[in-house]
Write a structure and sequence with these properties.
With 259 residues, this protein is α+β, with helices and mostly antiparallel strands. The protein folds into two domains: 6-145, Four Helix Bundle (Hemerythrin (Met), subunit A) (Up-down Bundle); 156-255, 2-Layer Sandwich (Nonspecific Lipid-transfer Protein, Chain A). It is 47% helix and 12% strand. The protein has helices spanning 6-24, 41-60, 83-104, 119-141, 149-168, 222-229, 246-255; strands spanning 32-33, 36-40, 183-188, 195-200, 205-208, 216-220, 241-244. A five-stranded mixed sheet has the order 5-4-3-6-7. It has a two-stranded antiparallel ribbon with strand order 1-2. Strand 1 (32-33) and strand 2 form a beta hairpin. The longest helix has 23 residues, at 119-141. The protein starts with 5 loop residues before the first helix and ends with a helix. 39% of the residues are buried. The model has no long low-confidence stretch (mean pLDDT 96).
């Protein structure tokens, strides 16, 4: 698996926000989101749109440090509870952020919270932020959810990098993902070559794209693997299969949740 192009990430931010907006059409915006139970569907949408505006502000201003959310114009949501206002607010925020990303290009130096201080980081991060929260919205609205295989695979790749970064930074939960010579295999049944082998070393975990026997294996469609890996689908779901030490999969999911 390889990174998507910068232009593709920019395109995907727009495509994913359009799909999220379609999910919200006619939905009960007061409904609780099962996978984010502290939020209603409207609050979830405002979180996504606020994140887009925050990143847009960072990129436009070539920020060298974090920008508090309260200093980002419009980040708190539309001024009306009208669903049409929320829809327009989501579309406008994503469009403005993508415009800023395209104008800056992938290599402009900006503040990020992670391993890479370039605009390329934010294009990828906002793609997958929207992909995963669109799944939350689909669950709350009880509508079907699909995602392009390349995007789903890259969502898994990016999450592995985030968990690795957390481990390198001393996160106490991620730090436990090591030792014992154990391994976890993800195997997509619908996309040839979409496989991951995660190995627990003495000091840290590593991963590679490979087919190899592991302590525990998770098999299913690529979208469902991505959803399980992001804790949006239970590993006990009939949509996926778990072979081997299921407790190790639970151990991984518990310690890569970051609260």
């Amino acid at each position: 698996m390889t990174l998507l192009s910068y232009d593709r990430y920019c395109d995907e931010i727009l495509a994913q926000i359009d799909a999220l907006r379609a999910t919200l059409q006619g939905a009960d915006l007061t409904a609780t989101v099962p996978t984010c139970p502290d939020w209603t569907l409207r609050q979830l949408a405002v979180h996504v749109g606020g994140a887009h505006r925050w990143v847009g502000e960072i990129v436009r201003g070539r920020a060298t440090e974090d920008i508090p959310e309260e200093k980002v114009p419009g980040a708190a949501g539309p001024g009306s509870d009208d669903p049409a206002a929320l829809d327009a607010w989501l579309a406008e925020g994503a469009a403005a952020t993508v415009e800023a990303l395209r104008e800056a290009g992938p290599d402009t130096e900006v503040w990020t919270w992670a391993w890479e201080r370039r605009t390329a980081f934010w294009a990828r991060r906002m793609t997958h932020e929207t992909v995963v929260h669109r799944a939350d919205a689909a669950l709350a609205a009880r509508v079907p959810y699909t995602v392009d295989p390349e995007v789903a695979a890259d969502t898994i790749d990016e999450w592995l990098r985030i968990v690795s970064f957390a481990q390198e930074g001393g996160d106490p939960e991620a730090d436990e993902l090591r030792g014992g010579g154990r391994s976890l295999h993800l195997h997509a049944t619908d996309v040839p070559g979409a496989e991951w082998l995660i190995e627990f070393g003495e000091d840290r975990f590593t991963w590679r794209h490979d087919h190899e026997k592991a302590t525990v294996a998770l098999r299913g469609s690529l979208t469902d693997l991505m959803l399980v890996f992001n804790r949006r689908l239970e590993p006990g779901s009939e949509r996926v299969e778990v072979f081997g030490d299921a407790e190790l999969l639970d151990f991984w999911l518990d310690r890569s949740s970051f609260g």
